[in-house]
Amino acid sequence: MKRFRTILAFVPRYKRTIIFGFLCLMGSRGIALYLPQILRRAVNEIDRGENLDLSVMGEAALAIIVLSVFLAMFHFGMRWFLITTSRKLERDLRNRIYSHLLTLTSSFFHHRATGDLMSRASSDVEQVRQALGPGVMYISNTIFMVPIALVLMLGMSAPLTLFSLIPLLGIAVLTKLLAPRMHVHSKRVQEAAADLSTRAQESFAGARVVKVFAREENEIEEFGKVAGGYLDASMGMARLRAVLRPSLQALEGIGSLVLLLVGGRYVGEAELTIGDLLAFFAYQRMLIWPMIAVGWVIALFQRGAAAMALIDEILAVGPDVRDPDDPIEEGPIRGEIEFRDLTFAYNGSPVLENISVKVPAGTSLAIVGHTGSGKSTLVELLLHMYPVPSGAVFIDGVDLNRYALRHLRGAIGYVPQETVLFSNTLRANITFGLDHATEEEVVAAAARSRLSADLEDLPKGFDTMLGERGVNLSGGQKQRAALARAIIRNPPILILDDSFSSVDTGTEEEILRELREVMRERTTILISHRVSTVQNADRIIVLEEGRIVEAGSHAELLGLGGNYAEMERLQRLEDELESLK
Q: Looking at the domain 417-490, which fold is it?
């Protein structure tokens, strides 16, 4: 059970229901073991022939009826308590995986497919539940029932009991041979299921691209290959089951045949009564079926262990960024930002080098540069999305590493380059991260982001349900919704990471006009490819291959005649060509 220690950590909270479940299990098995004894005495009474005591028959019939009712009640209680507990453990493990994933930094998700993670949190958790729910219940049933049944059988006839054990030895050998192969095939099935989920998720998410490039046939073919891999893995497991189950049933038949031949001889020689033989048949079935269940349970445990191993791989990955031992968790943040000789490498590749810049509280800093120059990485370090070198980034003169993550990120309004919206109402997306927000605050945030004009096109305004990733909004509407989400938090620090790339120049000017009042009240970092976006910033830096190559105001940078001036000239030419169309 060491493999399942992660989920077993949740067991103590359900101690009472587990105890009730096992009490019901013992009650149901105790009644099941006693019923053949009642039948034995009744049949032996009938076999006497003369002077049949009908009162014994009546008592036996009444006892069977009453005990059968209690058997059903105990059996129901057993499944209710134990299976319900396994479902709760499944929920706890799934929540554990989800909460753990949310602690991991961006670098983890860059290397793990979404479909793979979904498979871990869905089908793999279900396999673990099967092992710890039905699996534990049936193996406990076997452990409780088999020894008592053997004692009762030995009390009636030791030689016949030994003959009855012959098929059990065959079952033990068979399960011993097949169990290791089941573990290998179980892991293959789980991995193939993850690949299938990943492929389907990517295809559905990129459905528009698939259609635009007319790649439907190719995607169907590729999906068929992945589905074929899952089929091959599943067929390997199916072949093992096809061997296991009929073999177990054949051994059961052999056991019944041996019992009939040998037990019939003992009855003929008056060493056993007919009632004894019937009781033997009942007890043998109680032995055979638990042993058959052992084979099934071994398969469950093999699949559950394989699934748990894959889950543990994820849970073993720790977050790169954690709260410090003595974090700053409260207190106002004014918004003064300073980078001191910041150097940062990602996977061994240098991304930023010797970055030094100070942004006084309430001022604005613009960052421009070509794609891959390190602009977004710089603000992601400010958000502490990656490990930050000690003494390299400061807020209000305090090392960034001293702040609690929740306190730090709660003071920053962030509009990412890639807009992320959730399948919820527009209102819920705007107020995301806030416990309470008034209607006036929502309306004001929408007005400042120039989203108000788009509400007329939405059937229910703020209460319009958005599709996956905001699919029923245009690119510009998505960015304006993300901007409203950042503004409504009223943060002391506002980061706009190329947040106007999907809106036209006119809309951008309107948004910036509305934002000037907002920006005057807080520290603002602007990242953009457009000079028109950043020209009014208090300070502008130009990044090139992770280094600051130019810094100053808009007028100062134009006067230098360097990278920034060339960028301004090219964009001015583009605007002139656009106006001629």
A: Rossmann fold (3.40.50)
